[in-house]
Structures are given as structure tokens and as C-alpha cells.
Amino acid sequence: MAKRTKFSKFRDLYEVIEELAVSYTYEGVVEILAERHDLILTTGTLTNYLYRYRKESKKSSVSTDNSNGKIEIKHEASEQTFVDLKGGKPIQESDTDIDDDSESDNQDDEEIDYDALLEEMKRKAVIKSNKSLLDR
């Protein structure tokens, strides 16, 4: 029978090792692996194996998730509110429903306190500038 490599034993025990690593230091994990699973490793080798295994797993999950070789990036829809300072009501702009006017009808009844908004913006600007001065 062919002798198994340490990495192949490690690969079979990966889930157990990850669970142990949550509760123990790498030194503790190495001791437990030697005592209970007959896998003798140094902490450096354990770190190396974890890195290699995670890297290999990442490659295989990327290649199996997308068979055409292209990377897909999905963007979530976002919504922004712009306030027309002259007109008096918020202007809704959305990536998903640009033509939906049902919400803007309800906003006609709301009054906006521009003075309060301006004071809030000033307060935030002062706080931000004070933080940047402290960071220097």
C-alpha cells in the first residue's frame, strides 16, 4: 500500500483542524493532531498547509462557479435622494424604478426644514474637520 503524504492526511482532516483552530493556538492544534490523528506537523508546516489548502480551495471554487472563465460582478441597486433647494421637494433617483412616481406624490405633503438640514450639515462638517485636525 502506498504511503500517504502529510498534506493528504491534512486535507482529509481540514474541517477538524479548522474547528480546533477556533479554540486552540496552532501549537495546541499540532499537539492534538499528533495525539489523536497521528499527523505530526510543526506550527510552521500547519500554517503553510492552511495557506495552501485555502488557496487551492479558492481557485477551485472560482473555476467551478463560472465555467465560461469570465468573472461576474453583481451590483446591488442603490437609491439616492437629491434635494432641490429651489423647488422645495426631494427628487428621487433610483437604479431600479426611475419611472415610479407613487412615492413622489406622497412627498408633496411633507415640508422640509432646510434650516435644520443646513445646521446639521454644518455640524457634521465641523466634527469632521476637528477629527482631521486631531489625526495630524
Distance between the termini: 66 Å
- Major beta sheet summary: 2 strands, antiparallel
- Our count of helices gives 6
Class per helix and strand makeup: mainly alpha
Q: Tell me, briefly, the overall form.
A: elongated
Q: Could you state the order of secondary-structure elements as H and E?
A: HHHHEEHH
Q: Which percent bin holds the helix content?
A: 55-70%
Strand order of the largest sheet: 1-2
Instruction: Please tell me the overall pLDDT.
Output: 75
Strands, count: 2
Please state the CA-atom Rg, rounded to the nearest Å. 29 Å
Task: Provide keyphrases for this structure.
7% strand; mainly alpha; 6 helices; 136 residues; two-stranded antiparallel ribbon
Description of the structure:
With 136 residues, the protein is mainly alpha-helical. Helices cover 59% and strands 7% of the residues. Strands 1-2 form a two-stranded antiparallel sheet. A hairpin with a 6-residue loop joins strand 1 (79-83) and strand 2 (90-94). The N and C termini lie far apart (66 Å). Residues 94-100 and 102-107 have low confidence and may be disordered.
